[in-house]
Design a protein that fits this description.
Layout (H helix, E strand, L loop, with lengths): L10 H25 L5 H14 L17 H9 L9 E2 H12 L11 H5 L4 H11 L11 E2 L5 E2 L3 H9 L6 E2 L3
Helix pairs in contact: 1-2, 1-3, 4-6, 4-7
């Protein structure tokens, strides 16, 4: 299912920003390797440039140690992807689709090396931010393994997670017409 345009991640914007952001990150890394940045001035320059380019709060990204996490490419993608927006109406079907995208792994089509396919599995932060922004009952823990009263572990299904997130949201969760 395709989500409404206002909900879908803005991959075309991320793709346009990606080369410049990646280049800035790599130049910063090279500068650090050669010169260090004891006074933090180069880091401040980088965060200022990235903020001007994306209008995002850059301090939430781990620029200094990206290589220990997912790498420079994924970091550049995450920085370049616009944040989700608040939506006054999210259908049950859309909520189920978002939860499904977070819970289920789909093999990409063979030979598909598009930007969207390359970063499809790095959209988790985007979807979690969207859910947190739009659903009062959203809790990240719903996506984790659970333990019942008898000590047995289980995972909530996509439908159960959507129901727990969407329940009691009043006018936010509507049947789409």
């Amino acid at each position: 299912m395709e989500l409404r345009e206002e909900i879908e991640p803005k991959l075309e914007i991320a793709e346009k920003r990606f080369p410049e952001i990646l280049n800035l990150i790599m130049e910063f890394s090279e500068f650090l390797d050669e010169n260090g940045d004891e006074d933090g001035q180069e880091y401040q320059n980088l965060t200022r440039k990235l903020h001007l380019l994306t209008n995002k709060e850059i301090s939430k990204f781990n620029i200094h140690e990206y290589y220990e996490e997912e790498g420079a490419e994924v970091l550049a993608f995450r920085i370049g992807l616009p944040d989700p927006v608040k939506s006054d109406q999210v259908s049950k079907e859309e909520l189920l689709e978002i939860v499904s995208r977070l819970r289920n792994f789909e093999e990409p089509a063979e030979g598909d090396e598009s930007f969207a396919t390359q970063f499809k599995y790095h959209l988790d932060d985007y979807y979690h931010q969207f859910l947190e922004l739009n659903f009062k009952r959203y809790r990240f823990q719903l996506f984790n393994r659970q333990k019942d009263a008898n000590g047995n572990y289980f995972d909530y299904s996509v439908e159960e997670i959507a129901e727990k997130i969407g329940a009691g949201n009043g006018p936010t969760l509507k049947e789409r017409k």
